[in-house]
Amino acid sequence: MRCAWRDWGSQFRLLTPQPNLASPKLLALTKAAIQPIVSALRGWYERQPKHVQDNFVALKIGEEVDISGNYYFYPGGNDVCREHPTNSSLDPRYGRNNSKGLYGGLAPMGYNLLRTLGLRDVGGPPTRAELTQGIQHYFGYVAGAVAEAWPLVNEKELLFGHAGLVGDPLLLKWESPMVAPLVPTYSFYSGPGQPGLGTALAAYDPGHRRFAAGEFFCFGCQNNASKWTSAFDGLLFSAYGHLRYASIYNLGPFARLPGAVEALHTVLHRK
Fold first, then answer.
1. Of 46, 50, 230, 235, which has fewest CB within 10 angstroms of its CB?
2. What are phi and psi of 193, to 5 degrees?
3. For the residues 153-159, what does the mean pLDDT come to?
4. How many CB atoms are closer than 10 A to CB 134?
5. Angle between helices 128-149 and 24-46 (to 10 degrees)
6. Per-residue DSSP letter, 210
7. Is the pLDDT of residue 215 over 90?
8. Measured between alpha carbons, how far is residue 15 from residues 1, 113, 127 in Å?
9. How far apart (Å, rounded) are the C-alpha atoms in residues 130 and 89?
10. What is the CA radius of gyration of the chain?
11. Rounded CA gap, 164 and 241, in Å?
């Protein structure tokens, strides 16, 4: 694959294909890039008074880490990118269809991941269980690199891993970011999750069932305070686990919706 596509509200072309998340070179480069940043953050934290330290709630690694979600590939995609290297206006536009399964009806991905991990090098497209295992391997490595630079994040349970493209029964498993000591983190744009999240949390973290919303927004709520209140209630008081934090994506559009702001005040000031 020479390129890929992504859809964050609208489609755009990526100049690089889906990375092999098990590649030793990729992992080494990731460690080399992330450890100086973590060390700088550690230095800042250690200089702060306790009341400031107490407001530091999470160090999140990853931004919707997945395979075939934030990098998807059209059949014949190499020809499209080769023939029109700087003009994406002629690119296919139909994108993923999640009802068609793990790859959204597009080209399967993850073969190199399986080969690198020694899982297999023959057979059909990678399964959701295999891709979930590969993502867990990535999270485990990066979490270890972070903890090596700042052990306190493990001791205080401040390390979170943000996975993408999860969902039952067709997409990646909810277990994708469940690698000790990470608090599993997800994007919530279509409701508060599924029962499979609760089942996975009960097995992974039976005493607390902790999770986080690395991204959250209610596009269907528009400016309706009642709908926003229901959306907040579903997330903050989840039936599946205990929410550690939620990050509204994005604050600008949210702040321009008086009904959304009113709903947040209602939920936070409820007795």
1. 50
2. 115, -165
3. 93
4. 24
5. 40
6. E
7. yes
8. 10, 20, 26
9. 35
10. 20
11. 18
* Two structure tokens written together for 180: 């000790």
- CA-closest candidate to residue 78, choices 192, 10, 1: 1
Alpha-helical runs (H) found in the chain:
24-46, 50-53, 77-83, 111-117, 128-149, 152-155, 195-204, 225-236, 251-255, 258-268
Q: Which two tokens stand for residue 88?
A: 């994406």
Tokens for 42, please give them.
Answer: 């550690």
Dihedral-angle region of residue 105 (phi above 0 means left; psi in -120 to 50 means alpha; beta otherwise): left
Q: What is the pLDDT of residue 84?
A: 95
- Mark residue 178 as left, alpha or beta (left: phi above 0; alpha: psi -120 to 50; beta: remaining): beta
Contacts 24+ apart (CB under 8 A), 196-204: 196/167, 196/168, 197/240, 197/241, 198/239, 198/240, 198/241, 199/174, 200/173, 200/174, 200/175, 201/174, 201/240, 201/241, 204/175, 204/178
Q: Can you give the pLDDT at residue 216?
A: 97
Task: Tell me the pLDDT band of 102, cut-offs 50, 70 and 90.
Answer: very high
Residue 242 has pLDDT above 80, yes or no: yes
Can you read off the two tokens belonging to residue 131? 């891709």
Tokens linked to 7: 């859809």
Residue carrying structure tokens 């790859």: 103
